[in-house]
Amino acid sequence: MEAVWVKHPATAPEIMSRLAGQQEWKEQTIRTMLTRLVKKNVLSCRTNSKLQSYIPLLHRDQVVRTLSRGFFAKILKKASVLVELIRSTELSPDDIESLRQILLEKQKGKKS
Q1: CATH number for the domain whose boundaries are 2-56
Q2: Category of 11 on φ-ψ map: left (φ > 0), alpha (ψ -120 to 50) or beta
Q3: Average per-residue pLDDT in the chain?
Q4: Which of 40, 30, 28, 25 is nearest to 4 (CA)?
Q5: What is the per-residue burial (b if ≥16 Cβ within 10 Å, else e) of 44-69?
Q6: Distance CA 91, CA 38 (A)
Q7: Where are the chain's structural domains?
Q8: For position 35, what pLDDT does the model report?
Q9: Residue 21 and residue 26: Cα distance in Å, rounded?
Q10: pLDDT at res. 112
């Protein structure tokens, strides 16, 4: 989704180019994911001269909120899953600081 939010409309080749070096997904995997996101009404797809262009139907904030309330909220109930997710995700210094602040707030809330 990030590859589409950056600049849209975006064709599948443009999205693949943006993901190059970030993800080691094959072309078919990316195309399958795009198709699923269209079916879930997260992306819109327009065909123009054999090229499909994708446009996000949801803002980034909406998707993050939805994920945090749904799927991830259920999975991340166990701290070990959360820890592994953090370990396996590349985080910027700003991301790390945000996580640190969230954990500090959580810790203060539990002491009250």
Answers
A1: 1.10.10.10
A2: beta
A3: 85
A4: 30
A5: eeeeeeeebbbebebeeeebeeeeee
A6: 28
A7: 2-56, 77-112
A8: 93
A9: 12
A10: 42
